[in-house]
Design a protein that fits this description.
Layout (H helix, E strand, L loop, with lengths): L22 E4 L2 E4 L17 E4 L2 E4 H8 L59 E4 L2 E4 L18 E2 L5 E2 L1 H8 L55 E4 L2 E4 L18 E2 L5 E2 L1 H8 L20 H7 L30 E4 L2 E4 L18 E2 L5 E2 L1 H8 L51 E4 L2 E4 L18 E2 L5 E2 L1 H8 L17
Antiparallel strand pairs: 1-2, 3-4, 5-6, 7-8, 9-10, 11-12, 13-14, 15-16, 17-18, 19-20
GO molecular function, one term: actinin binding
Subcellular location: Nucleus
Pfam families: LIM (PF00412)
């Protein structure tokens, strides 16, 4: 088999093969690096300033001068404001493209299936859509001024042609003083053509009925995705999604779902379902004392049962106050027990409590701080604050002694040096003579609480504060001691 070298693409400018190491691509053609320059001024080009036209390369300025609009005011600056017609490019000295000429013949499509302008087949790469009809890119232009169109400025006329917005306004828009977008459309003559302006089409959304409970709640018709608006999981037509009373068009921000299954604007919802009476709602429009009675208002509102005991909980699992089941939305915690938010108040004065104000009493109830101090705080002169200095029974009860007084004693020499019971790590205080409970770690004489800075171990195995230790075991005589209380002659 004879050897066949690989075929390489030809450069449109010099018609020689282009290899990968030196290729430049523009408009689907491959050029040599040295050929990649403007066909008029010879300026070297790159991907940012190249413009291709029929396989010929130009810089942006030369392309605008040769193929851009002519006349006063066109172009991109003072350099482009020229009045020439491009005659210098039409003589014998004009640079002509060496690229092969492409055939302009178009394969005709069957009637009604091709481009409405030229009748040829329209492929996906060159397709432009308008009202479901496919145009060629080159045919997608205004029917009057031949201006190129896109999806933003295209307008379809009643004659099934496409126009730019200005030509559409001149041809089919309203006439007379004040109409249009400028002087060009301010015309007072009759229609330039015999066609009348397009009429507004009223779409009947109830023409296609849906199954019961599946269609639009307002008209009962089938709701398709392009016109769907959602409210509380129900589908509405965009046309039907308006206030039930004032027919104001609604959106997801100002729509309010009423208990009757309808949608309302905020104003009508407040008038119909909001609170009534002087001072309620958001303004003078809502300050109404007439209309609905209290019975009608109460009957239209959702039912609420304030009785927390209606659902009983198993013993030991419900609210300690009422015994009802406690759910997460109304739960308040205190010492591992769950309370209703309604029951979470002081057992004495019934003041509402929170996690800061609540005090758990030894009676398994909760109290505010003042009531807790009155019931369980220390009594007598100097204790508590003013509301707790009371002695209603004539004699103040004895102060509760927190030391243990029951249970098994520890082995000799292993328990607390004061009470003799076992000492655990969480309540342990250490001195030279042994371990002590934190509550027993006080001066043997004056009962002042001690710590490592005030601790003095006595020779009798007890612990003392500094003052008591000095009086009991310190030196005697004039000048000794820590103050007047210790200057004794005993």
């Amino acid at each position: 088999m004879p050897f066949k070298p690989a075929e390489h693409p030809k450069c449109p400018k010099c018609s020689k093969s282009v290899y990968a190491a030196e290729e430049r691509v523009a408009g689907g053609y491959k050029f040599h690096k040295t050929c990649f320059k403007c066909g008029l001024c010879g300026k070297m080009l790159d991907s940012t300033n190249v413009t291709e036209h029929e396989a010929e390369l130009y810089c942006k300025n030369c392309h605008a001068r040769k193929y851009g609009p002519k006349g006063y005011g066109f172009g991109g600056g003072a350099g482009c404001l020229s009045m020439d017609t491009g005659a210098q490019f039409q003589g014998e000295g004009a640079v002509l493209s060496r690229a092969p000429l492409l055939s302009t013949s178009v394969a005709k499509a069957p009637q009604g299936e091709g481009c409405p302008r030229c009748g040829g087949f329209v492929y996906a790469a060159e397709q432009m859509l308008a009202r479901g009809r496919a145009f060629h890119k080159t045919c997608f232009k205004c029917g009057d001024c031949n201006k190129g169109l896109d999806s933003v400025n295209v307008t379809e006329g009643p004659d099934r042609e496409i126009y730019c917005k200005v030509c559409y306004g001149k041809r089919f828009g309203p006439k007379g003083y004040g109409y249009g977008q400028g002087g060009g459309t301010l015309q007072s003559e009759c229609f330039a053509v015999g066609d009348q302006a397009p009429k507004t089409t009223l779409v009947d959304t109830a023409a296609i009925k849906a199954k019961p409970g599946q269609g639009c709640p307002r008209c009962g018709g089938v709701v398709f995705a392009a016109e769907e608006v959602l409210a509380k999981g129900r589908q509405w037509h965009r046309k039907c999604f308006k206030c039930r009373d004032c027919t104001k068009t609604l959106d997801s921000i100002n729509a309010c779902d009423g208990p009757d299954g309808e949608v309302y604007c905020r104003t009508d919802y407040g008038k119909k379902w909001g609170p009534h009476g002087y001072g309620f709602a958001c303004g003078s429009g809502f300050l109404q004392t007439d209309g609905l009675t209290e019975d009608e208002i109460s009957a239209s509102r959702p039912f609420y049962n304030p009785d927390t005991t209606s659902i009983k909980a198993p013993p030991g699992q419900g609210c300690p106050r009422c015994g009802g089941m406690v759910f997460a939305a109304e739960q308040q915690l205190a010492k591992g027990t769950m309370w209703h938010k309604k029951c979470f108040n002081c057992a004495e004065c019934h003041r509402p409590l929170d996690s800061v104000l609540a005090c758990d009493g030894p009676d398994k109830e909760i109290h505010c701080r003042a009531c807790y101090g009155k019931l369980f705080g220390p009594k007598g002169f100097g204790f508590g604050h003013a509301p707790t200095l009371v002695c209603s029974e004539g004699t103040a009860p004895a102060v509760h002694d927190p030391r243990p007084n029951s249970g098994r004693k520890a082995a000799p020499g292993q328990g607390c040096g004061r009470c003799g019971y076992s000492v655990y790590a969480a309540e342990q205080m250490i001195s030279k003579n042994g371990v002590w409970h934190k509550r027993c770690f006080s001066c043997s004489e004056c009962n002042n609480s001690l710590d490592s800075t005030k601790l003095n171990d006595g020779p009798d195995g007890e612990i003392y504060c500094r003052g008591c230790y000095g009086r009991n075991f310190g030196p005697r005589g004039v000048g000794f001691g820590m103050g007047a209380g210790t200057l004794t002659m005993a």
